[in-house]
Amino acid sequence: MTGKAPAIISVDDGYCSCDNLNHATQNGTALISFSGSKDRKLLGDNVYESENYQLARNLRSISEAGISKPKNYHNLARYTVCGIKRV
Fold this sequence. Notes:
Layout: E1 8-10, H1 18-26, E2 31-33, H2 37-43, H3 45-48, H4 51-73
Parallel strand pairs: 1-2
Protein backbone atom coordinates (compact mmCIF):
# COMPACT_ATOMS: atom_id res chain seq x y z
CA MET A 1 0.00 0.00 0.00
CA THR A 2 2.94 2.35 0.60
CA GLY A 3 4.77 1.40 -2.58
CA LYS A 4 7.79 0.24 -0.60
CA ALA A 5 8.78 -3.31 0.25
CA PRO A 6 9.83 -4.19 3.80
CA ALA A 7 13.49 -5.09 4.28
CA ILE A 8 12.60 -8.12 6.43
CA ILE A 9 9.46 -10.25 6.57
CA SER A 10 9.20 -12.84 9.34
CA VAL A 11 6.03 -14.94 9.59
CA ASP A 12 4.99 -18.40 10.77
CA ASP A 13 5.10 -21.65 8.81
CA GLY A 14 1.53 -21.23 7.57
CA TYR A 15 2.77 -18.76 4.95
CA CYS A 16 5.68 -20.94 3.82
CA SER A 17 5.56 -21.49 0.07
CA CYS A 18 7.70 -20.93 -3.01
CA ASP A 19 5.05 -18.52 -4.31
CA ASN A 20 5.18 -16.33 -1.20
CA LEU A 21 8.97 -16.39 -1.16
CA ASN A 22 9.16 -15.44 -4.85
CA HIS A 23 6.55 -12.69 -4.47
CA ALA A 24 8.42 -11.11 -1.56
CA THR A 25 11.84 -11.24 -3.22
CA GLN A 26 10.53 -10.01 -6.57
CA ASN A 27 9.01 -7.02 -4.79
CA GLY A 28 12.29 -6.06 -3.12
CA THR A 29 12.24 -7.76 0.28
CA ALA A 30 15.83 -8.61 1.18
CA LEU A 31 15.07 -11.35 3.73
CA ILE A 32 12.00 -13.46 4.39
CA SER A 33 11.74 -15.89 7.27
CA PHE A 34 8.94 -18.40 7.71
CA SER A 35 10.12 -19.58 11.15
CA GLY A 36 9.65 -23.33 11.09
CA SER A 37 10.66 -26.69 9.69
CA LYS A 38 9.03 -26.01 6.32
CA ASP A 39 11.22 -22.94 5.98
CA ARG A 40 14.40 -24.94 6.49
CA LYS A 41 13.29 -27.35 3.75
CA LEU A 42 12.45 -24.51 1.36
CA LEU A 43 15.67 -22.50 1.81
CA GLY A 44 18.22 -25.06 2.96
CA ASP A 45 20.41 -25.23 6.04
CA ASN A 46 22.96 -22.60 4.94
CA VAL A 47 20.39 -19.83 4.65
CA TYR A 48 18.33 -21.00 7.63
CA GLU A 49 21.36 -20.96 9.95
CA SER A 50 22.80 -17.65 8.67
CA GLU A 51 23.19 -14.74 11.10
CA ASN A 52 20.67 -12.51 9.31
CA TYR A 53 18.13 -15.28 9.17
CA GLN A 54 18.49 -15.97 12.88
CA LEU A 55 17.96 -12.23 13.48
CA ALA A 56 14.69 -12.37 11.50
CA ARG A 57 13.47 -15.33 13.56
CA ASN A 58 14.41 -13.56 16.80
CA LEU A 59 12.56 -10.38 15.76
CA ARG A 60 9.42 -12.42 15.15
CA SER A 61 9.77 -14.08 18.54
CA ILE A 62 10.07 -10.67 20.22
CA SER A 63 6.98 -9.41 18.35
CA GLU A 64 4.94 -12.47 19.30
CA ALA A 65 5.74 -11.87 22.97
CA GLY A 66 4.41 -8.32 22.69
CA ILE A 67 1.23 -9.55 21.01
CA SER A 68 0.60 -12.21 23.65
CA LYS A 69 0.34 -9.71 26.53
CA PRO A 70 -2.84 -7.95 25.34
CA LYS A 71 -4.33 -11.29 24.35
CA ASN A 72 -3.66 -12.95 27.69
CA TYR A 73 -4.03 -10.09 30.17
CA HIS A 74 -6.71 -7.93 28.56
CA ASN A 75 -8.97 -10.60 27.07
CA LEU A 76 -8.16 -9.63 23.49
CA ALA A 77 -7.85 -13.14 22.12
CA ARG A 78 -10.13 -12.37 19.16
CA TYR A 79 -11.28 -9.32 17.30
CA THR A 80 -15.03 -8.94 17.07
CA VAL A 81 -14.79 -7.20 13.69
CA CYS A 82 -13.26 -8.14 10.35
CA GLY A 83 -11.02 -6.20 8.00
CA ILE A 84 -7.97 -4.06 8.62
CA LYS A 85 -9.88 -0.77 8.58
CA ARG A 86 -12.37 -1.95 11.20
CA VAL A 87 -9.76 -3.57 13.42
